[in-house]
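During the practical work, I selected for study one protein's amino acid sequence and its backbone structure tokens, as given directly below:
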Amino acid sequence: MMGISARWGGIEAHAVVHDIDVFDRGHSVDSESLQSQAPRASPVDPSPARTVPAGEVNTAVSGIPFSVRQQFRQQEIERERISEQFRQEGQQKATDEEFLVQQAREWQGRCWICAQEGRDSEHELYYCPAESSQQARTWMIQVRRQVRYAAFSSCYRCGMPQTLCLGWQTETGGPCMHRGLLYPMVGMMLFGGPEQARIEGLWQQRLAAVGIDAQDERQVVEFFGRRSEGPQGYTGLVETFIWLRRLYSSIGR
């Protein structure tokens, strides 16, 4: 069989002519007889296709209105953002706690001021006879006995986060591992060493940024015991220690 294709008003129609042999049978087939066998096309609607205005609900594709799908997508993006934020905060907390443990190994029970001044440092600040250590020693004694920590924030003996020290478990008699670290080190880094004047000025600016007068002992004591607004939930004492140690570490001290 031979297929013949003809186009009527944009619609293709196919006619089939059976066993045409114009030479053997002497028959001729003209175009009009072939066209008469093709189906007639339906009239084309001249009116333009209707477009959906922007913002109009169109459920033809997925069955869900576009505005609803867009809202779902925004919620998904927000969930991903929050998840990433929690992941980063968890990583930062792990980094901070690793740093605290490393610093505890290096400086607990040692005199940081004597180490900076090239003297024997294998003694606690409380027992240091050096004149340059006395301001830090006095500050440590006065502040340490006044601080009251926010609930479940710290070991009540040494001030370290409860995840790092079991001394807060008074009922089970957990040992306090870091009693000679935070207060002595903060006192020595604030009120001793060759960078004392510059560091003390930065410390005052840091506290002023959160509305605290560094010269007001009562405000400083309250700040040390208060849980910070940071994602880790450390007390002001722990955050101050981390800040000072990283500051000094950056200059090799």
